[in-house]
Design brief:
Order of helices and strands of chain A: HHHHHHH
Order of helices and strands of chain B: HHHHHHEHEEEEEEH
Number of domains of chain A: 2
Strand content of chain B: 15-25%
Mean pLDDT of chain B: 84
CATH class of the largest domain in chain B: Alpha Beta
Number of strands of chain A: 0
Largest sheet of chain B: 7 strands, antiparallel
Low-confidence stretches of chain B: 259-267
Helix content of chain A: 55-70%
CATH architecture of the largest domain in chain A: Orthogonal Bundle
Mean pLDDT of chain A: 80
Structural class of chain B: alpha+beta
Low-confidence stretches of chain A: 87-92, 159-168
Number of helices of chain A: 7
CATH class of the largest domain in chain A: Mainly Alpha
Shape of chain A: globular
Distance between the termini of chain A: 48 Å
CATH topology of the largest domain in chain A: Rna Polymerase Sigma Factor, Chain: A
Largest interface: A-B, 51 and 42 residues
Oligomer: heterodimer
Shape of chain B: elongated
Chain lengths: 168, 267
């Protein structure tokens, strides 16, 4: 039991980070993580699948997030002002992508692409693990990632900018 | 290695291309600057995403997200359930009784009568509680404010009634009439001689029209008002003059800013 709680605890920072990136609202994100942890604690005996706790937690979090989105669809979204990246971000320097622009671009992605992209790019999960968490085949994951990145590329105005073709 | 796919480029950029393919990929990229630029762009995307959100993972985790604390709270809640079952029976009894005696309030009355009656019932039930008077205590007032604001879909700050001699005990979420969002927040305050008053807040009624009402029922005084953002009922059993002072202070604090440029008031 205490082992289990320790395992949960080590996952909390990653869950908060992922939830924040998904919701872009600090309070909503923490509420989501709290609901996720409570659900995990109450289900630990009967329903916990064998396998890494981290993947299971991400699956719970994603389900809760989807449910919450469905429930609040008509209310419109709230974005915490602190979470809006600095609007005064200076113009992109050669080889850099403006962060504010990137944040807005991610927000416009369809949910399924955003979920997949953040698992891989932000959380650094292996493709296989991300696909398991999302309960989709590897090929589907790859195609979501590909579409997400193509969209980001178009939205952050990258292809037309010659300086973005320089290789670090 | 004649065929390089998009997926392979992406896997390389993500550091997830298995070893034998990686060496071949590096040779390919050296000979194909366009593909190398694509890979660099993918990596910059990932860098930007990590720069945006990575720092959240290094923040101090709030106490409410500590698994041990959550587990302890959940265990406590479970053991309380029997108490709640008993309380529910009492509540139903109270509701029936109060509903019967409150009939005059409901006869062809506007929705405000329901809200006032709900506020008075909730007051009667919870001021009598000692250990479980509130769901979230004043020591966690920031969370309380955020939580209730989210649940009511409006900004709800905690009024400061220090001048009137009352301090916040805490608050709870209650089911409410469907005409005002289906939920209500109850805030409880107490003075040094253990007198308690409660503030019952819901989101606005459909018409959002301003309204003011005063009701006295079974020794409890209730001050009700509604505006475009909330309805609020202050309930207590203090002498009328003292009740007016408290209600006036709550009113000023909860409506300040409502008519301004949309800047939320500070609770």
């Amino acid at each position: 039991m205490n082992d289990f709680l320790d395992q949960l605890e080590t996952c909390v920072p990653a869950l908060r980070r992922y939830a924040r990136a998904l919701t872009r609202n600090a309070d909503l994100a923490d509420d989501l993580v709290q609901d996720c942890l409570e659900r995990a604690i109450s289900r630990r005996g009967l329903f916990r699948p064998t396998g890494p706790v981290r993947a299971w937690l991400f699956t719970i979090l994603l389900n809760l997030h989807r449910n919450a989105l469905r429930a609040s669809h008509r209310r419109g979204e709230t974005v915490d002002i602190d979470m809006v990246p600095e609007l005064s971000t200076p113009a992109a320097q050669p080889g850099h992508i403006a962060l504010a622009e990137m944040a807005r671009a991610i927000d416009t992605l369809p949910l399924e692409q955003k979920e997949a992209l953040l698992l891989v790019a932000l959380e650094g999960l292996a493709y296989k693990e991300a696909a398991d968490i999302l309960d989709i085949p590897l090929g589907t994951l790859m195609s979501r990632l590909g579409r997400a990145r193509t969209a980001l590329r178009a939205l952050t105005g990258a292809p037309a900018e010659p300086h973005l073709r320089t290789v670090k | 290695m004649s065929e390089i796919t998009r997926d392979q480029l992406m896997a390389y950029a993500d550091g997830q291309l298995p070893e034998p393919e990686r060496a071949a990929m590096e040779a390919f990229l050296a000979a194909n600057p366009d593909a190398a630029a694509d890979v660099a762009l993918l990596q910059r995307q990932s860098d930007a995403i990590r720069t945006l959100f990575g720092p959240v993972g290094a923040e101090t985790v709030p106490a409410r997200l500590k698994p041990r604390r959550l587990a302890a709270e959940m265990a406590r809640r479970r053991s309380r359930n029997w108490g709640w079952a008993a309380a529910a029976i009492v509540l139903v009894g109270l509701g029936l009784g109060a509903g019967w005696f409150a009939r005059p309030l409901f006869d062809a009355q506007p929705i405000s009568a329901t809200l006032i009656a709900d506020a008075i019932h909730a007051h009667a039930v919870y001021v009598a509680e000692n250990r479980h008077a509130v769901e979230v205590g004043a020591d966690d007032s920031e969370h309380l404010s955020t939580w209730l604001s989210n649940r009511l879909d409006t900004t709800l700050g905690m009024p400061d009634l220090g001048t009137e001699g009352f301090t916040l005990v805490g608050g709870r979420l209650l089911p409410g009439t469907e005409y005002a969002g289906g939920r209500a927040a109850q805030l409880m305050y107490e003075n040094t001689i253990k007198q308690r008053i409660t503030i019952y807040v819901t989101s606005a009624l459909a018409d959002g029209a301003p309204a003011y009402q005063f009701a006295s029922y079974e020794g409890a005084e209730a001050f009700y008002w509604a505006n475009a953002r909330i309805t609020c009922t202050v309930v207590g059993t203090l002498p009328e003059e003292q009740m007016r002072a408290v209600a006036g202070s709550v009113y000023r604090q909860l409506t300040e800013g409502d008519f301004g440029a949309g800047r939320p008031y500070r609770g």
